[in-house]
Amino acid sequence: MEPFSFASSEALDIPINIRIVSLEGQQTPIPFSTLINRPDLRHIGSNLSSHSDLYVTAQLWADSKP
Predict the structure, then answer these.
(1) What are all long-range contacts of 57-64, with beta carbons under 8 Å and residues at least 24 apart?
(2) For residue 47, what pLDDT is reported?
(3) Can you give the C-alpha Rg of the chain in angstroms?
(4) Organism's domain of life (predicted)?
């Protein structure tokens, strides 16, 4: 297997569009009792908004090769 690397979209020099058709899964909110006991968890984005941050992994293909 060849080594791989990661790049953010702003690091790419070519225009690229990615279409996400659907998302799967469910993130359960942290119970209020846990937030009381762990003040460091109160400011996590998933607790402040009903829509949590998304992380997308994409594999680009060209000429039938990844």
Answers:
(1) 58/18, 60/16
(2) 56
(3) 18
(4) Eukaryota
DSSP 11: G
**Residue 47 class from Cβ within 10 Å (0-12 exposed, 13-18 middle, 19+ buried)?**
middle
> In this predicted model, what pLDDT tens digit does every residue of 19-43 receive, in sequence order?
777 777 776 777 888 888 988 877 7
Residue the block writes with tokens 């109160």: 42
Would you list the domain boundaries of the chain?
28-66
Residue given tokens 């996590």 in the structure block: 44
Q: How many CB atoms lie within 10 A of CB 52?
A: 13
Q: What is the distance between the alpha carbons of residues 25 and 31, in angstroms, rounded to a whole number?
A: 19
Query: Which residues does 20 contact at the CB level (< 8 Å), separation at least 6?
Result: 56
Are 45 and 30 within 8 A, CB to CB? Answer: no
Query: What tokens does 26 get?
Result: 């469910």
